[in-house]
Amino acid sequence: MTDQAPSFGPAKGAPVPLLKPHDGLPPVVDGPEALAATVEAFAAGYGPVAVDAERASGYRYSHRAYLVQLRRAGSGTALIDPVRCPDLGDLDAALADTEWVLHAASQDLPCLAELGFRPRTLFDTELAGRLLSYPKVGLGALVEELLGFTLEKGHSAVDWSTRPLPEPWLVYAALDVELLVELRDVLADALDSAGKLEWATQEFDALVGHEPRETRRDPWRRTSGIHRIRNRRDLAYVRALWTARDETARRRDISPGRVLSDLAIITAASTKPTSRAQLAALGPFENRAARRDLDLWWSAVRRARELDDEELPEHTMPYDGPPPARAWADRDPSAAARLAACRTSLHAIADQCELPVENLLAPDSVRRLAWDPPAEPTAEAVAQALRERSARDWQVELTAGALALALADHLLDPA
């Protein structure tokens, strides 16, 4: 491991392709001795540490990390195989006081936490780009815009569970952290100049303290094409096939779509085959993957067909929040007016602050506030309601007063 590459500034003229790591491609860390040496090297480094992880989304059921990339001044770059090194607790302890730099941190933090590797402070370059209202906030776009280099993104969707990992993939992975700290420095300066650094700090702190969401209720209702299903019996077919597929995919650690397609589930639910042969004759069941488990799918179809009426799923899932906004005009015109007024106010604030409106305040928080506003919508009451929905202080300070006025203007007359 060698020292960090020198800092780069915004380039003039055509961007320069970044084709290989500045220090060369390091060997993959794939055992206890190599991991111990990496921990020692990164403990001896200085400044923030760039962190990234690669998963096998679309190939595997789990969301585990299959490669972890690090880079730090004084330490160089490390590529860690978490299959061979599944416990990064020592590395976590060595970097406990170090700021992490990640791009789109919320995507990687859960799989890194599974390895015992968690940040105490972080800087998210994608989120910083959003707060600065850059039109494109992908890592490649920001590196090109601010540092003058282009990154190769051709391996972003490969199967990272492959072993051994091909060298071109490892080069791609190493380059993802090559300039991450330099990008952080440029973005931090821009946030400071725009008066948004404190906003960003609050957002980053919220990411560090964020707890994983609970498992979604009735996840089978997210099956693509389910809007075509019109009755409860057909929904039972979707639920039974989805559940059988999910259990199989989990057991084999294969992406569910590679076990059975959503189209196959919806087709079976729509046609309700009465025999195994009829199920096998359906187009989406003619491929090799679906035929491999045809007995399993037929058992699921039979279970759905034999359910009593009281066992069938409801048309819609019970929900503790407001209905879809498109239904408000008919169900509660006053709530629809409040929502429209709140959105108008927020768009005006977002334009003034040069922010995407969804970063100014979470859309779900706005809908809930408009549907069930405080009885007396003062700025203080609205601020409290927003904080209960996890709004950050900077968001509350910018929006509570304007939202209170919008709500007050559109509350129903008690008479």
Describe the structure.
This protein is α/β, with parallel strands linked by helices and 415 residues long. It folds into 3 domains: 193 residues, Ribonuclease H-like superfamily/Ribonuclease H (Nucleotidyltransferase, domain 5, 2-Layer Sandwich), CATH 3.30.420.10; 93 residues, HRDC domain (DNA polymerase, domain 1), CATH 1.10.150.80; 84 residues, DNA polymerase, domain 1. 49% of the residues lie in helices and 10% in strands. The protein contains 20 helices and 8 strands. Strands 2-5-4-3-6-7 form a 6-stranded mixed sheet, sandwiched between helices. Strands 1-8 form a two-stranded parallel ribbon. Strand 4 and strand 5 form a beta hairpin. Helix 16 crosses helix 20. The N terminus is likely disordered.
SSE layout:
Layout: E1 16-18, E2 28-29, H1 32-43, E3 46-55, E4 65-73, E5 76-80, H2 89-94, E6 99-102, H3 105-113, E7 121-124, H4 125-131, H5 139-147, E8 149-151, H6 167-178, H7 180-193, H8 197-208, H9 232-252, H10 256-259, H11 262-271, H12 276-281, H13 288-292, H14 294-306, H15 328-331, H16 333-353, H17 357-360, H18 363-371, H19 379-388, H20 393-408
Parallel strand pairs: 1-8, 2-5, 3-6, 6-7
Antiparallel strand pairs: 3-4, 4-5
Keywords: Hydrolase
Protein name: Ribonuclease D
Pfam family, one: HRDC
